[in-house]
Design goal:
The termini are far apart. It is built from nine helices and no strands. The chain has about 210 residues and is mostly helical. Helix 1 (about 15-40) packs across helix 2 and helix 8 packs antiparallel against helix 9. The protein has helices at about 15-40, 40-50, 55-60, 60-80, 95-110, 110-125, 125-150, 160-185, 190-205. The protein has two domains: about 15-60, Arc Repressor Mutant, subunit A (Orthogonal Bundle), CATH 1.10.10; about 75-210, Tetracycline Repressor, domain 2. Keywords: DNA-binding, Transcription, Transcription regulation.
Length: about 210
């Protein structure tokens, strides 16, 4: 597997960036359809409508484009777009929890086939596992900072260790959506986000709006 710490600079021209992105989009389709082991560079190039040799202008190997794709997915998964006007307000802690959980579930479900491939490859390849773990750790750290802030404001249970709680709660959500996707369970996204957020709120001692006296 390629060195996941080596990040090749983006092409200098707009045309080059479009060509590279077309290959990444094609790779997502091919890896999701065929899995990592059976995916072929020729299939990725064909799906992108590119000459087979042009693949190597942007990537050295199947492994390199897979890691580049994972980095792109990581950005979508852990840094979702700003909420739309019909999503819950982030003015209160429960609203922040619900918004974050819903965005994560939505992003994961949109790319669930390739996310399952990522999980499978991570069990076999330590470098891909490290990429997944590091991304999850950064996300958990941001949650830990929020928990500590809520504790300082008297909103969350002061007995909790923010880092432990964040790892446990984010792990619960990621494991839930993986099992949901791998089993193709008939769950509703909004209901899942709400139920997971209720569990978060109860675990943290954060009051939900409906639970206000």
């Amino acid at each position: 597997m390629t060195d996941i710490d080596a990040v090749r600079p983006l092409p200098a021209t707009a045309r080059g960036r479009r060509s590279r992105q077309a290959l990444l989009d094609a790779a997502k389709t091919v890896f999701a359809r065929d899995g990592f082991a059976d995916a072929r560079i020729t299939d990725i190039a064909d799906t992108a409508g590119a000459a087979h040799g042009s693949f190597y202008t942007y990537f050295d190997s199947k492994e390199e484009i897979f890691v580049a794709l994972l980095r792109e997915l990581e950005e979508e998964l852990w840094h979702p777009a700003e909420r739309s006007s019909d999503e819950p307000s982030a003015a209160d802690p429960y609203g922040q929890i619900l918004r974050a959980n819903r965005a994560y579930l939505k992003a994961y479900r949109q790319d669930r086939a390739i996310m399952i491939v990522w999980e499978q490859v991570a069990t076999l390849n330590p470098e891909v596992e490290r990429l997944r773990r590091d991304a999850a750790d950064r996300f958990a750290h941001r949650i830990a900072v929020a928990i500590e802030h809520w504790q300082q404001k008297g909103i969350a249970d002061p007995a909790l260790d923010p880092e432990y709680a964040a790892v446990a709660l984010t792990g619960m959500v990621s494991n839930f959506v993986y099992r949901w996707s791998a089993r193709d369970a008939d769950y509703d996204l909004d209901t899942a986000a709400e139920q997971l957020s209720v569990l978060w709120a109860n675990a943290l001692g954060v009051r939900r709006p409906s639970a206000n006296p």
